[in-house]
């Protein structure tokens, strides 16, 4: 019985650690923090958008249409037509 190698050369496979365990945890934690931070920001922006949209819709529902029965009348700027409580006085001092 003869025992021999088929080839005289061989290939050695060596595995090296790319990340230490704590470095791996740090990388995973940083990535998750980035994703969760973006998610929280997105949720806050979505809530803000919904609240503003709801407020705009409610405000539009409360606004009464303008009274158009006097639309063809010209405004009266005569002193007798003015309300005295809205009187404007301008005084200039030198």
Quick structural gist:
By secondary structure, this protein is mainly α. The chain has a domain at 19-63. 45% of the residues lie in helices and 0% in strands.
Describe the structure.
This protein has one helix spanning 21-62. It has 94 residues and is mainly alpha-helical. It is rod-shaped.
Provide key terms for this protein.
about 90 residues, mainly alpha, 1 helix, rod-shaped
SSE diagram, text form:
Blueprint: H1 21-62
Q: Give the fraction of residues assigned to helices.
A: 40-55%
Please give the radius of gyration in angstroms: 40 Å
Which structural category fits the helices and strands? mainly alpha
On the 0 to 100 scale, the average pLDDT is 79
Topology, number of strands: 0
Count of alpha/pi helices: 1
Q: Report how far the terminal alpha carbons are from each other.
A: 128 Å
Order of helices and strands: H
Percentage of residues in DSSP E strands: under 5%
